[in-house]
Specification:
Blueprint lengths: L10 H17 L1 H13 L4 H11 L5 H9 L4 H8 L3 H6 L3 H11 L4 H8 L6 H4 L6 H16 L5 H7 L6 H7 L5 H8 L6 H8 L4 H9 L5 H6 L6 H14 L7 H11 L16 H6 L2 H5 L3 H8 L5 H8 L4 H9 L5 H7 L5 H14 L11 H17 L12 H16 L3 H8 L11 H10 L6 H10 L6 H5 L3 H6 L11 H13 L5
Helix pairs in contact: 1-2, 2-5, 4-7, 5-8, 10-11, 13-15, 15-17, 21-23, 23-25, 24-25, 26-27, 27-29, 28-30
Protein name: Leucine rich repeat variant
InterPro entries: ARM-like
Organism: Acidovorax soli
Amino acid sequence: MPKTTDAPPSPEELAELEALFKGMDAHFSESGERRRFMQSASGLNESDQVLLQSVLAGKLAHDAALAGAAAAHSPLRMVNALLELETKIRRSKDKVLLDFIFALLQSGRVAEGLNRTWFFAWELSLVLNKNLTPEQVRFIWHSRKDRYAKELVPTSARVLIKHPQCPLDVLEVLLPVDDPMLRKSIAMHPNASAEIARFFLNSQRKPERLNLALSRHATSEALLSLLRDKHDEVSRAARKNLAQRFPALQVTDGAIQAAIEKNIAKPYVKPAVPKPVFNPWEAARAGHAAVLALDSTQRKRVVTATDDPELSRLLAADRSTAVRREVAKRGSVDLDVLKVLAQDPDAETSDLALNRILRRTPDIPIEDVLGAEALDAAYREIAQLVARNSQGEDYEESLSPPQQRDFARLRLVVEHTNNPLIQLMIVKGLEVIPPVGSARWYLLGSLSRSWNLSEAASRKILVDLKFGGFIPIQHCHSPAVLRELLVPGAVASHNLSTVQERLAELVARGLDA
């Protein structure tokens, strides 16, 4: 009988709930890993199932387990089932189980089959197990290195390189990959060689030298080489590491100098005269020629310090992309300078300038900002999206970052175009509002915010589709369309006052035809 009061549950009811939760936990433990394992293993024949159960129960000796792996009927399906037990494999100290898995992986084309059928990193739970041998880590590397090379962010390689048994040859192969997290793991790895240490000692990047100075596996010679680093943070870390790990070592000037000469190709020498601090405000007052003679980093800093419109115009044509981007970020730059930057070949510079222009003058037509070639390209892309009539939801989320940037630019074009043909093309054929999140919905939303809506587009959005709320009403330039909205039921009651105020404004300005 259901409870009708707010009284707390009785001990018997709590016991029933606890039993229920324990049963659910047994069924869905480790995020359902056991259930997925049982589903995967159900397709094995009887001999493979017995072998799998014996290995997991620890009933087979090492040699017997390896012999069973060699004679398995379906090794790919068997290892696929085992890899579903991610938590167990990640924590297991059972050498027989781990060697059994690798014996399966090494038989025939099992690893290749996994790479085809698993769309995520099948090796992850294995690599996270600290009990693998160097040979096993090396095998995973050779099995997955082609896949790792395709990753824009080397996430899987970062996990592999952190394994304490990762072999030196794998460290050396991954060392050239320019990824800060990856290099940090290599610098602090127990298997890093003297050559790898020398690579970081000669790095021009402070964080890479600092990682070596903090490493618990760095040699005393490597740490001595960092005691005269130009950054105090690096030298302090190296000195502290030396004192903790090599307390008996005599740290003398001669030992430091010998280590530096042996390991560092271009030792840092403290200048006799400190380098003067760069003052961008003083540099900006020194004249245009003096500013243009500075290096790009200094010119970039001058951009933020000057209010000279002529200097900003010169820097907007700078050969350095970073300098032009900095000019495009400034809200005080003249509009004509921003219009030039809006057509910059660098996409980020162009987008920054375009957004500045449209934020400052939201009613400016995009046709007054972009060149004919860029406009034609944007019109063609909009036409293609409308022609495909993309109805899929979450359209923007399905795009890559560069594609999302291009789509955002298209939406800006739609929001600010005064081309009536483009506006009509976007609303043409729409009888109902497109699905939320679809490409057509995004384009319609951008168009509804436009200050340059034609009368036909306004009527379609406001009267036929009833889309956009109060914003397209405030941007409407047609008294005739606004009067159509005054008909009872044509617009939501909370937007009626907005219609009346906008109509009165247009009439007062003499725009009532």
